[in-house]
Amino acid sequence: MIHSVRGPVLEIGLDHVVVEVGGVGLAVYATPATIGGLRRGEEARLATTLVVREESLTLFGFADTEERELFLLVQTVSGIGPRLALATIAVLEPDTLRRALADGDLATLTRIPGVGKKSAERLVVELRDKVTAPATVPAGAGGGAGPSAPQPVLGVRDQVVEALLGLGFTQRPAEQAVDAVLAESADATPTVLLRTALSSLGRAR
């Protein structure tokens, strides 16, 4: 397993970054919050895990080992693959996820795109005894936006909608969430736009 990667960031996308390691550019898929903390040209160090499929090798990256362990833990539940696991840690912070599992909080778990009541119940049954609920739930994630230059609204909107669809949200709610953010801040960078829309969709579920 590729346990971690470190090197300069060559590219930043809506759902991945490219990190140069030993002269090779590695595409690393990550959550909007993790991507938002990186800057092109600066060195990044990400905890990683490699998902091997017959037709692909996909590298997932995380801000810390705690997120990685939760990503792997969620996938031990039947029917939960890496895509849904990444959506889980994108919508719910580690402490929020652990508390929801420990308390059987189905309302919080169904905020995850692609997770209905039955899936949420399965998550609770299979993982409740494997997590420890935090003493307190911290305030929402901070993660300031970087000095990325604003991009034209037209192309950015479609890119962010596509990224939300990739996380499991449906077309109309994704478009409505993105449009609402753009109405408030037309010059939002793609990363900020995605993170804010994702937060809005999570609250609405």
TrEMBL record:
The protein's matches in CDD domains, at most eight in alphabetical order, are given as:
UBA_RuvA_C (cd14332)
**InterPro entries attached to this UniProt entry:** DNA_helicase_Holl-junc_RuvA_I, Hlx-hairpin-Hlx_DNA-bd_motif, NA-bd_OB-fold, RuvA, RuvA_2-like, RuvA_C, RuvA_C_sf
Q: Where in the cell is it found?
A: Cytoplasm
Which keywords belong to this entry?
Cytoplasm, DNA damage, DNA recombination, DNA repair, DNA-binding, Hydrolase
Major location, coarse class? cytoplasm
Ranges for domain Helix-hairpin-helix DNA-binding motif class come to: 72-91, 107-126
GO terms assigned for molecular function: DNA helicase activity; hydrolase activity
Annotated stretches, region: Domain III = 145-205
Q: Which residues form a coiled coil?
A: none
Q: What is the role of the protein in this entry?
A: The RuvA-RuvB-RuvC complex processes Holliday junction (HJ) DNA during genetic recombination and DNA repair, while the RuvA-RuvB complex plays an important role in the rescue of blocked DNA replication forks via replication fork reversal (RFR). RuvA specifically binds to HJ cruciform DNA, conferring on it an open structure. The RuvB hexamer acts as an ATP-dependent pump, pulling dsDNA into and through the RuvAB complex. HJ branch migration allows RuvC to scan DNA until it finds its consensus sequence, where it cleaves and resolves the cruciform DNA.
Q: What is known of its domains?
A: Has three domains with a flexible linker between the domains II and III and assumes an 'L' shape. Domain III is highly mobile and contacts RuvB.
Query: What's the subunit arrangement here?
Result: Homotetramer. Forms an RuvA(8)-RuvB(12)-Holliday junction (HJ) complex. HJ DNA is sandwiched between 2 RuvA tetramers; dsDNA enters through RuvA and exits via RuvB. An RuvB hexamer assembles on each DNA strand where it exits the tetramer. Each RuvB hexamer is contacted by two RuvA subunits (via domain III) on 2 adjacent RuvB subunits; this complex drives branch migration. In the full resolvosome a probable DNA-RuvA(4)-RuvB(12)-RuvC(2) complex forms which resolves the HJ.
| Homology family | Belongs to the RuvA family.
- Report what the protein is called: Holliday junction branch migration complex subunit RuvA
